[in-house]
Design a protein that fits this description.
The protein is an alpha/beta fold. The protein has 16 helices and ten strands. Helices cover about 50% and strands about 15% of the residues. Helix 4 links the parallel strand 1 and strand 2 (about 75-85). It is globular, with a radius of gyration of 21 Å.
Length: about 325
């Protein structure tokens, strides 16, 4: 499971993928380019089935993996958009898929059923990687700079009344002191071990059931923007936050970290470990919170297809040729 040094790995991934992506133009280019490109296909002869969960960020990351592996010569089966977390994980552990994007906090708290996660993203990922490999022969590859953790947004009306962003403490105090304030959440958030309980414990304030409204994920964003939700539970890199002019509640570090890695079956990883490490590093390293939110916005708010946004990202980063 040894990886190339980071800088060398990224350069190799970018150059190999760019060359292999040119294969469709080999006839017009002339010469022996086809043979040369075949020699650069670092995943040639390897079959990879790529999955993902069913929300926009996952669809986008899944499509990025599909296209990058395909450009590197792999025989790729696209199983993006499988369903929720449990469905995607079951597909991975059963061998129905070989890889999908997963979050380190989910790996620790949900899949490995551990408590007291590290709030250092490097340490948390390393802990998940070691335990999941030992228990399940799942390899965690790379780690994104972006952290798509749970958070809350305030409605435009509440933000204006507050004179700017809330902190987690002032948000909870506002809810306590204003019985008409409504906090909108997904159905599972109030009961998840990494959900509402963390905010209530940290602030010492509990939200009364009468002030909680359970909504579908996408509806929370629009209803918060329309001031029907005073506060809404969200994912912090969701593109609808900037698109709808919502304001994130400032979290001092209460919520668990959710940096993303590629979770891959060891049987697949072992066929080309250095190549997989290099390709995934080239993909994840540019994705900080701002970059991921902007890509998500293009899908969630602007209505672009995840596959098209994925292609544009890979070309812009020089990972595949345009």
């Amino acid at each position: 499971m040894k990886a190339f040094p980071k800088k060398i790995a990224v350069i190799m991934a970018a150059s190999a993928l760019a060359l292999s992506a040119c294969s469709s133009d080999s006839d017009s280019a002339g010469g022996d380019q086809g043979d040369n490109v075949a020699g650069q296909n670092s995943l040639s002869g390897i079959s990879v089935t790529v999955g993902s969960k069913d929300f926009d960020e996952q669809l986008l990351l899944g499509e990025i993996l599909v296209q990058a592996f395909g450009a590197a010569g792999a025989e790729v089966t696209n199983q993006v958009n499988l369903g929720g977390t449990s469905v995607a994980r079951a597909a991975l552990t059963s061998g129905d898929i070989d890889v999908y994007p997963e979050y380190n906090g989910t790996g620790w708290a949900v899949h490995l059923e551990q408590e007291n996660p590290s709030f250092d993203s490097v340490e948390l990922t390393a802990n998940v990687k070691e335990m999941d490999f030992d228990k399940n022969q799942i390899v965690w590859i790379g780690r994104s700079p972006f952290n798509n953790t749970y958070g809350f947004v305030s409605s435009p009306e509440a933000t204006e009344a507050n004179g700017g962003p809330f902190t987690t403490q002032t948000f909870m105090e506002y809810v306590r002191d204003n019985p008409d304030a409504v906090v909108c959440m997904e159905s599972e958030f109030p009961d998840r071990p990494d959900g509402l309980i963390l905010t209530e414990t940290a602030t010492g304030i509990e939200i009364p059931d009468a002030q909680v409204s359970i909504l579908d994920t996408g509806v929370i964003y629009t209803e918060s923007a329309n001031n029907n939700c005073t506060f809404g539970e969200v994912y912090t890199t969701d593109g609808r936050i900037p698109a709808l002019g919502l304001t994130l509640v400032e979290d001092p570090g209460i919520n668990i970290l959710y940096n993303v890695s590629a979770a891959m079956r060891a049987e697949t990883y072992d066929q080309a470990p250095d190549q997989f490490e290099a390709i995934i590093a080239a993909i994840l390293e540019p994705l900080d919170n701002t970059a991921m939110a902007e890509l998500n916005k293009r899908v969630s708010a602007d209505g672009e297809e995840p596959s098209a946004v994925a292609t544009d990202f890979l070309v812009t980063q020089g990972i595949i040729a345009g």
